[in-house]
Amino acid sequence: MIEVDADGPIRTVTMNRPDARNALTGDGLEALETAIGEAEEPIVYLHGRGPAFCAGADLTEVAALEGDRDRAAAFARLGQRVARTIEDSPAIVVAGIDGPARGGGLELALACDVRVGTPESTYGEPGVSFGLFGAWGGTVRLPRVMGQGDALEFALSGRSIDAEAALRTGLISRLEDDPRSVAEGIADNAADALAALKRRLRDDGERASQERREAAAFADLVTAHADDIDAVLE
């Protein structure tokens, strides 16, 4: 599900489940955490195989959490942990987004240092349409990236936006036909300077308490909307 390839200063991490639009199970999240957490290269390039970046959580696995609030909260915390691993990595993590980034997939991209979309990329938080929301740190990061007003409208509507809109609202940093070229350009710089600069730019306020409340709200919704989640899977 997760492939790793090291090529000089760049570690390429590929979410490789194209038939499921690279949706992540618990095992997939743990493998992703390991792939990024063990990086010794100064640059990590994260992308998806096939026609999507990442559809987020595997809804079949989410549906199996019905009736078990503790497991639902634990699943949210696992996704949050992976996003923190991305955010806290000493490596510069570049997301190359080609095709849809949805729900948890978008949240993982939000945790990356640089988000580069292709003209074909699209972005959305559709969970609200069936009674959920992304709970991998998105409620913490989305307002910081887009601004609170745009983040509220985007998340509450459940709509998808195209690459141009994502660029205007700050969801992506660059729009390129070849997102990897941005990672290669960053890799030309001094690794120690990159790591130091990331530490300083990432030095922000309290995050853990917000994430605990996010996981609790997600667990409540998994229980309340079990039938709606099942309907999406039918």
The gist of it:
This protein is an alpha/beta fold. It has a 6-stranded mixed β-sheet, with helices on both faces. The chain has helices at 26-37, 59-63, 69-88, 104-111, 138-146, 148-157, 163-169, 180-187, 191-201, 208-224, 226-233; strands at residues 2-7, 10-15, 43-48, 92-97, 100-102, 114-117, 122-124, 160-162, 174-175.
Characterize the structure shown:
With about 230 residues, the chain is of the alpha/beta class. It is about 50% helix and about 15% strand. It is built from eleven helices and nine strands. Strand 1 (about 1-5) and strand 2 form a beta hairpin. Helix 3 (about 70-90) runs parallel beside helix 4 (about 105-110) and helix 5 (about 140-145) packs across helix 6 (about 150-155). The mean pLDDT is about 90. Belongs to the enoyl-CoA hydratase/isomerase family.
How many separate domains make up the residues? 1
Broad structural category: alpha/beta
| Main CATH class | Alpha Beta
> Quick check: average pLDDT?
92
Order of helices and strands: EEHEHHEEHEEHHEHEHHHH
Into which percentage range does the β-strand content fall?
A: 15-25%
CATH topology annotation:
2-enoyl-CoA Hydratase, Chain A, domain 1
Task: Report the count of strand segments.
Answer: 9
Global shape = globular
CATH architecture: Alpha-Beta Complex
Q: What would CATH call the homologous superfamily?
A: 2-enoyl-CoA Hydratase, Chain A, domain 1
Q: Helical stretch count?
A: 11
Q: Strand order within the widest sheet?
A: 1-2-3-4-6-9
Low-confidence stretches: none
**What percent of the residues sit in helical stretches (DSSP H or I)?**
40-55%
How far is it from the N-terminal to the C-terminal residue, by CA? 24 Å
Radius of gyration: 17 Å
Biggest β-sheet, characterized?
A: 6 strands, mixed
GO molecular function: catalytic activity
Family: Belongs to the enoyl-CoA hydratase/isomerase family.
InterPro entries: ClpP/crotonase-like_dom_sf, Enoyl-CoA_hyd/isom_CS, Enoyl-CoA_hydra/iso
Protein name: Enoyl-CoA hydratase
